[in-house]
Design brief:
alpha+beta, 3-stranded antiparallel β-sheet, 12 strands, 17% helix, elongated
């Protein structure tokens, strides 16, 4: 289905989201968009008709510290899906069939394919310990994270989960 007048973003590579191939696409930068499509509707009187639903970029939300989006399948079933897992499935090789996706820089909001890697649970935990992202006692866990707030760098606008993660990113 081609709809005229839609803005085209030629700077991104877009690939279908697995399981939602005719409905959504994902870029290696972690952006997910819906595709324009024809949907079946019914009027108040019960008369069926078709309507064009225009594609758009989806708005992510925080789901347990990770960014996620709601995806709707062809049957109308709505499910929340973690963006980092979608990006990794499409753009990051997983030759050893590892089950978890790790954010290399520790920033759970940086869902670029270049920042993601497939790992085992033990590799994921070791990375968290090595980068001081995991605290077994929860002591020092950022109040901003608990309140669902993020730290924004004033120079480049990047978002961080805590002051500590921002400091690590800038080698402070």
């Amino acid at each position: 289905l081609e709809v005229f007048g839609e803005p085209a973003d030629y700077s991104e590579v877009w690939k279908p989201v697995p399981g939602y191939e005719s409905l959504y696409e994902v870029s290696p930068n972690g952006v997910i968009r819906s595709l324009s499509r024809l949907v079946k509707c019914k009027s108040k009187a019960g008369t069926p008709y078709n309507m064009i639903k225009h594609g758009k970029q989806l708005s992510p939300f925080d789901s347990g510290g990770y960014l996620a989006v709601f995806l709707v399948d062809n049957d109308g079933v709505i499910k929340a899906r973690a963006i980092h897992r979608i990006v990794a499935k499409v753009f990051v090789d997983n030759p050893d069939n590892k089950p978890q996706v790790n954010h290399i820089d520790g920033d759970k909001y940086n869902n670029s394919a270049s920042n993601l890697e497939w790992v085992t649970q033990s590799e994921n935990m070791q990375h968290a310990k090595n980068t001081n992202l995991w605290n077994p006692n929860g002591i020092g866990y950022s109040i901003a994270v608990k309140q669902g707030k993020r730290i924004k760098c004033v120079t480049d606008g990047k978002l961080y989960l805590s002051i500590a993660s921002a400091a690590r990113a800038y080698h402070m």
